[in-house]
Write a structure and sequence with these properties.
GO cellular component, one term (chains A, B, C, D): cytosol
CATH class of chain A: Alpha Beta
CATH architecture of chain A: 4-Layer Sandwich
Oligomer: homotetramer
Enzyme class (chains A, B, C, D): lyase
Radius of gyration of chain A: 21 Å
Family (chains A, B, C, D): Belongs to the chorismate synthase family.
Order of helices and strands of chain A: EEEHEEEEEHHEEHEHEHEEEEEH
Number of domains of chain A: 1
Structural class of chain A: alpha+beta
Distance between the termini of chain A: 31 Å
Mean pLDDT of chain A: 95
Number of helices of chain A: 7
Low-confidence stretches of chain A: none
CATH superfamily of chain A: Chorismate synthase AroC
Shape of chain A: globular
CATH topology of chain A: Chorismate synthase, AroC fold
InterPro entries (chains A, B, C, D): Chorismate_synth, Chorismate_synth_AroC_sf, Chorismate_synthase_CS
GO biological process, one term (chains A, B, C, D): amino acid biosynthetic process
Largest interface: A-B, 109 and 109 residues
Helix content of chain A: 10-25%
Strand order of the largest sheet of chain A: 1-2-3-7-4
Number of strands of chain A: 17
Chain lengths: 354, 354, 354, 354
């Protein structure tokens, strides 16, 4: 597998480079008969698109998705949904300076080594622009999943961290601010901090937390395709992600079993939820929640030294229009990938009993 | 995919329940002509097996692997390697008490919900006994990978945490103590702590750190099958794992891009390695290192309340021979899964250029 | 994919060489809750096993299957079913004569070229012995499919061809004779002919016809995974198969559309069935029928000239205990592969509507 | 797998309906560094396109392919190649008459049953229009395969059958006539016959023969993914195909082993080639040749009776612009699918030795 396909039954293949003609994908396996709200799809794309606020990259791209197939009279037909987003704002000139040199902590060097050469314009295939295709497919998955609620939000920017967990937050406030942090006071601080970082020409990391609610019991295919393992892979496949934890996560390491075990209520729900809604790789009906760590964006608008293709040292200067912090725009991407995982397991689950 | 297969070209399918006749697997895609050291495979199994020290479960199982196919005159033939480990110490009686009730934070409830019923003996398929099959296949993968060095070790037990990173440690000391922590002083403390926990009938979590060295540049298949994404999935598929981070990980969130970026040396190596040996999902030749968080084992030897199949509250008592802390035995499992991922990407990499 | 796995959701991986320790497989994805009749499985194995009559190879192998996992209290658990058949009658000495030379029209040469060397004993992995594992899995698939009737039979041996089609035959007579031809008069002629061929030390080809009845409408996943395309691949993967046709097949080439079209009855069934029960790659509820052409077995008990590994011409003599005609024993294999295809599409079909 | 993806490493996913916005695909896994001749791709599309001669459908569609990604400065980058062909000649009105009734021997009925409803315009996804995407990908595969020669041609139309085998023909004449039969005299008869059939408003079946030359030894992944098994599946997945045979095929059934066996020359080649270039599922370096049987096109321009969605009998009349015989346009499709199979196995083969 050359790595551009995700999912087994609800299956997305994406294509496209940052500065090519178009990006897009084929979503195969979406069941027939789903009435699609195309506006909702575009809305998720708008949450991801550049230029939406002062704290994200100021590139302007409408990111309008065109559907080519798989829909008839407003409903999915069960055949593959082909779609494309044409690239309209390709300032390839911006990238002349990286044609022959490798930007530190980008994929320039590794793509060159792996494939022998690369489409250097805007990072080519390694650009996070690819994730727009995921958002399209994820938005379809969300509609398929109907009653399942998928809410991601920013819980940390640099050292600024929410001191409440998701049950203490009003998640409907996530979209009320450009940071996408549901706690307005913290959001303000984060926003100010990101602006400061931007002014320095620097970047900062962050954490996106995601909560999946009303997930039916039984999703996940042990032993390798555990629900949280596929969620983890999905998140780690997003650009700039360095870590994933669910339920008690890394903090759970310090707990004792007697504390960490989630006692049952008589209806099968549990009194606590350190497990994070998954036991033995299978959803147990409780909320699934997880954290996704994003490193600071590698493109800094500063002078730096690096090497060229021939191993010569070169001095250069970061340019272009980049995100000082990636997490606000990553929120819909995290949701999209979670939706794709859940949609796939929902279909797989149908095959489990005679 | 019903979830019991791992890998695309170097592909392992496992079978087996804790207390069934045998566990085992089929390893398909191991290239032909590899001279196999069967002792080395058994050695890794011995590192995982129960009863090896005072701080692990006292069950006694020899865990002897039998090979059924795929080998001829000491070498792999390119055909699937079938193998089995017969279960010899199946004290099924030990599990009568869980037949009709659900142990908290185990997979009893979810398996019953997913499949309609379950093999309750020793956790059945959800038991970590399944990982012995992974260790067999991983040990073969290690031999295929030859020059790549794969070293996992225990870096944290409860709150006891190594204060050195892997470059400051002598990894050859990992096997010198039953905890598998390469720092003897810390190992002693961890060992004492685990014994104490065990005396309480309780359990504790821990972290396994793993370092992959001499990995050639170019492994990983973006965009979904990024090297670290598949490593993450591999680790998250191990029983009791709650989190995965690589390179700077969750700590990288607090860094600025200007700090986090890894400057190049003229030979393509980097001066720092916050990236953790992977850029854009592709190995860059630097060391790959990651942390895997394990929750405390759910089986505590204490009285507890839970529910039965019909939702009635029942009082019961944890029994059996269980691990107070899973990380010492998890070390070879983490290595095995890392080896499987690297072997698969090594084969996939051969398809990348004309 | 290294080629030893068949199916997407109902998925069989096999292992094993003709003269290794054991052959067997892992059947993953069989839904939970299926009460398995183990005798019925062994019965299908007995239909395939050597030594069952005077017209098949006189090797004696009990071919007793052992199940290692996936069953509990007589029912499938939804976890992988591991199984093995130990090889008991490995007269490896019989194969000393082929160690260093290539038998014409066998896989000796190609395996050596592909893998660098081979397990030459009895053909190793290329031996039809591998199909015993398919028969085990296929017998489980049959039980899962319940109401679907799967009947294969011998319709041609050399030029001796049934002059009736399946609707004119009493398929319950198939097992009444060693040829497995449901027309007793033709069966006698075929049997006599095979004995004659055997006396000559020669072999002869044949055709197996298979009929699938009560297949529900809707199985098959266009466009690539058409029902008949996967049936075709399944059949072509059986040793010695040279051709596959379904419905009107090669004869349909000579028909006009106005003749070939199957008019509908008002209940959706069709008046004729040139389509062979599949339209657009999807079952239409009518009988599915197809023919599978088998070449004459390559092992003849005659003197012949061939080459050795180094390209030297060598004279040798066919030995061993071989089938003069493969089709009688191929009948249960054809049924098994058909059952695996139908079981897989039955599970896939569940994912098609919202 | 929802069935719209073909291949494991050289992997094509297609999308698109006959009368939707566009058809197209994503070709993932094409190795980097391949200089692509875009004209050659368009040329193969032109060989498939409607309106190219008097004996094919008179629909006019330019079938111009647009590439969206995966190419940079004329070469493949190793990233997925996204492409689309916009539909320009969608006379949807032509299909009003089939909206509510099922055409015999089409996929109307089965799609409706499988998915609950269908895009009825021009057959939607079941239209052979989908194969244009295969031709694009196949043309890329051909360029990747370089030295391998892939030649398909028409060998039979109705009962008019070439009486020479491929070694007696000049395959460079295939494109010299609209039938694509390399024997000019037979081609003339076939052409006249097809015109006659067309005048009757009827259709006729045919056979496409394909020859693969210079295929290296070693392609094919036994046991399930035998080279000829995947070729067979590839061919059977093409619209209207009813049968596949390779090498001696169905005729081989009547041969004795002593006749059928292909004796070796000292260089590993064989004196005869009844095996058809494949032994044990692996190419042996000899020519691979196979026949593909196509039924008569189901759309006849005649009055006929059928049923509607509610099972009522309706009288209707075949309309539209259809092919009287599908084989002339099927030639490039057969070649494309053969190329995709060979390209995939070429990449897989790289993983076979250490």
């Amino acid at each position: 597998m050359a790595g551009n396909t995700f999912g087994t039954l609800f299956k997305l293949s994406t294509f496209g480079e940052s500065h090519g003609v178009a990006i897009g994908g084929v979503l195969d396996g979406c069941p027939a008969g789903l009435e699609l709200d195309l506006n909702a799809i575009q809305l998720d794309l708008d949450r991801r698109k550049p230029g939406q606020s002062a704290i994200v990259t100021q590139r302007k791209e409408p990111d309008t998705v065109e559907f080519y197939s798989g829909l008839f009279e407003g409903k999915t037909t069960g055949t593959p949904i082909g779609f494309a987003i044409h690239n309209t704002n390709q300032k390839s000139k911006d990238y002349g300076h990286i044609k022959d040199s490798y930007r530190p902590s980008h994929a320039d060097y590794t793509y060159d080594q792996k494939y022998g050469f690369r489409d250097y314009r805007g990072g080519g295939r390694s650009s996070a622009r690819e994730t727009a295709s995921r958002v399209v497919a994820g938005a379809i998955a969300k509609q398929f999943l109907k009653n399942i609620k998928i809410n991601a939000f920013v819980s940390q920017v640099g050292t600024l961290k929410l001191d409440k967990n998701y049950t203490e937050l009003n998640l409907s406030l996530t979209e009320s601010n450009p940071v996408r942090c549901p706690d307005p006071a913290t959001a303000s601080k984060m926003e100010a901090y990101i602006k400061e970082i931007k002014k320095e020409g620097d970047t900062i990391g962050g954490v996106v937390t995601c909560v999946l609610q009303n997930v039916p019991v039984g999703l996940g295919e042990p032993v390798f395709d555990k629900l949280h393992a596929d969620l983890g892979k999905a998140m780690l496949s997003i650009n700039a992600v360095k870590g994933f934890e669910y339920g008690s996560g890394f903090a759970g390491v310090c707990m004792k079993g007697s504390e960490h075990n989630d006692s049952f209520n008589t209806d099968g729900s549990t009194k606590t939820n350190y497990s994070g809604g998954v036991q033995g790789g299978i959803s147990n009906g409780m909320d699934i929640y997880f954290n996704v760590a994003f490193k600071p964006v590698a493109t800094v608008i500063q002078a730096y030294e690096t090497i060229d293709k021939d191993g010569n040292s070169v001095k250069t200067q970061g340019k272009g229009r980049h995100d000082p912090c990636v997490v606000p725009r990553a929120v819909p991407i995290v949701e999209a990938m979670a939706a794709l995982v859940l949609a796939d397991f929902t279909l797989l689950q149908r095959a489990n009993k005679i």
